[in-house]
Amino acid sequence: MGRTIKELKSLEHSLDLARLRGLRPIDDDFMRCIFRDNIPLVQLVLRILTNIDDLVITKLEIQKDLKRLLGARSICLDAYGIDSKGRIYNLEIQRWDHGFGVRRARFHSSSMDIENLDASQDFDELPETYTIILAEKDFFGKGCPFYPIERVNLATNELFNDGEHILYVNGEYRDDSEIGKLMHDFSCWNPDEMNYDLMKDAAKYYKETPEGVAYMCRTFEEIRKEGIEQGIEQGIAQGIEQGIAQGIEQGIAQGIEQGIAQGIEQGIGQGIEQANIANIKSLMNSLKITAQQAMEALKISPDDQIKYAAKL
């Protein structure tokens, strides 16, 4: 017997609360919330990562879209800040399963140049930029807390000093230094165990206060809705393509109509599947249970359990 809408909503809310308990600042959804409108926290993080003690952030945008060239690939920056001296910072938080290769770092850095030089400006007016990738794992595997990337004049072995800085940060690094304590905080789900008060206070707000928890639950709902909409959009595109192929034999109009209908059905299925997989992972991480136990708690059918197990 299927669940009622009220029962499904109650289950979703319970899953959201379980997921929220296990979130860490290095998780995308949570990072965007605790950094939102929180200049003091972002300023603290950037001071530690860049070793610029007098860094004062005057402007902060979370999830800033960059696309100034028609047809060029757009990017969305996790945290984009400008300091009192005009220096620009792009802080990217990367989970281990997402990846941030060296050419992606290059593209992010060059995109900031394009974003910050207008047609009437001289090239010497390009601001100093910092592209900072805080990766959950040690990207280069050498055990260093930082990996600064700078251009060098190979003939003279001197820095090129063009104002571009790329910095990889080792999220696995731990010791009693500022960076070691900060990396601990980024991977910590319990605010009471965090070292820095600004990080602790932000995490507590979104995990423990009614206002913060409500905001996070709305965020989860928007993510689910976006996933279903993307699934429908992909399904429609696939359906139209299939419909055109069918239309060659059956009549194009009829084929496209059938394809769209099939695409919508497939898209909804894909969206529900994505939401279920996210819920399974949330239960596994928050309650420390197996995938089988999580799927049984969600009352997922045996046939679907086999399908989801292959994708986890």
Structure description:
- A hairpin with a 4-residue loop joins β6 and β7 (158-159).
- It is built from ten helices and eight strands.
- With 312 residues, the protein is of the alpha/beta class.
- The chain has two domains: 24-188, no CATH class; 230-309.
- The chain has helices spanning 5-22, 28-35, 39-50, 102-115, 178-186, 197-208, 210-250, 252-287, 291-297, 302-309; strands spanning 57-66, 75-83, 88-94, 129-135, 146-149, 152-153, 158-159, 164-170.
- Helices cover 53% and strands 15% of the residues.
- α1 (5-22) packs across α8 (252-287) and α8 (252-287) packs across α9 (291-297).
- The strands form two sheets. The chain has a six-stranded mixed beta sheet with strand order 1-2-3-4-8-5, sandwiched between helices.
- The proportion of residues in beta strands is 15-25%
Number of distinct helices: 10
Please summarize the sheet with the most strands.
6 strands, mixed
As for the number of domains, it is 2
Q: In order across it, which strands form the biggest sheet? A: 1-2-3-4-8-5
What's the shape?
A: globular
User: In whole angstroms, how far apart are the ends?
Assistant: 26 Å
Give a count of the beta strands, DSSP E runs of length 2 or more. Answer: 8
Which stretches are poorly predicted, pLDDT < 50 over at least 5 residues?
Answer: none
- Rounded Rg: 23 Å
How helical, in percent, are the residues? 40-55%
Structural class: alpha/beta
Can you give the mean pLDDT?
A: 85
Strand/helix succession: HHHEEEHEEEEEHHHHHH
